[in-house]
Amino acid sequence: MFMSRVRILAALIAAASAAAPLHAQEVEPAAETQNDAIATATDFATSLMAGATAALTDENATEEERLERFRVVLGDGLALETIGKFMLGESRKSMTDAQTARYNAIFPRYITNLYAEQFDEIIGKPLEVIDAKAIGARDVIVRTQFERTDASPIMVDWRIRKLRSGEHKAIDIIVSGVSIMLVKREEFSAFIATNGIDALLDRLELETAD
Q: Residue 156: its pLDDT value, please?
């Protein structure tokens, strides 16, 4: 009986030893997947910045042409639908189809104008990626800094999300600790509470008029 127990114990130890490498193999791909996600998000953020810089510094284009090219670059790089819904908050649930269509027509130009002002501080300055980390299952924060000769570096965080389509898009760009998404969400909410949705749409159309 004693020998039978020894044999059973030995068999269990052998089975556990054989299973250990399999367990390690199961864990490793997950780590590689997260590393790949971080690398992809970092490449996306630096590529987006490079495209924006090229658009805004083209000496052969007029100021209006440069701004329009920047809008195209940023419009392609931003998750406009996600950002637009976030900035409206709960108010979007009570909007009519006509109001939603009107907002969707205005929003891309409005948000790219806002970011054009933010990018004015960092365009043409050397970029350095100093950190990147996964946030949840689909987001990566890429932290960058832009060196300045006469002042401290400008810090810019890029929140990059892998959409259900498989595409990567920026859902927030935080310049010097300021998130336009959060600031404008609060501003929109307060304005709508006082003036209503149509008044907000009138204001956005006015601010984006040429």
A: 94
Residues present in the chain in total? 210
Whether the Cβ atoms of residue 117 and residue 70 lie closer than 8 Å to each other: no
User: Is 54 buried (19+), middle (13-18) or exposed (0-12) by CB count in 10 A?
Assistant: middle
Domains of the chain (ranges plus CATH)?
A: 34-208 (3.10.450.710)
Token pair of 65 as six digits:
């042409």
pLDDT of amino acid 159: 96
Helix (H, G, I), strand (E, B) or coil at 155: strand
Which parts of the chain register pLDDT below 50?
1-32
pLDDT of residue 105: 94
pTM of the model: 0.77
Q: What angle in degrees, to the nearest 10, is found between the helix axes of 97-119 and 197-208?
A: 40
Would you call 7 helix, strand, or coil by DSSP? helix
pLDDT at 31: 47
Per residue in 184-194, pLDDT (tens digit) is: 999 999 999 99
CB atoms < 10 A from the CB of 206, how many? 9
Q: Where are the alpha helices (DSSP H) in the chain?
A: 2-56, 63-77, 80-88, 97-119, 180-195, 197-208
- pLDDT at residue 6, as a whole number: 39
> What is the rounded CA–CA span in Å between residue 55 and residue 5?
75
Comparing CA positions, the residue from 107, 115, 123 lying closest to residue 51 is 123
Using CA atoms, how far residue 171 sits from 87, 89, 202, in Å, is 11, 15, 25
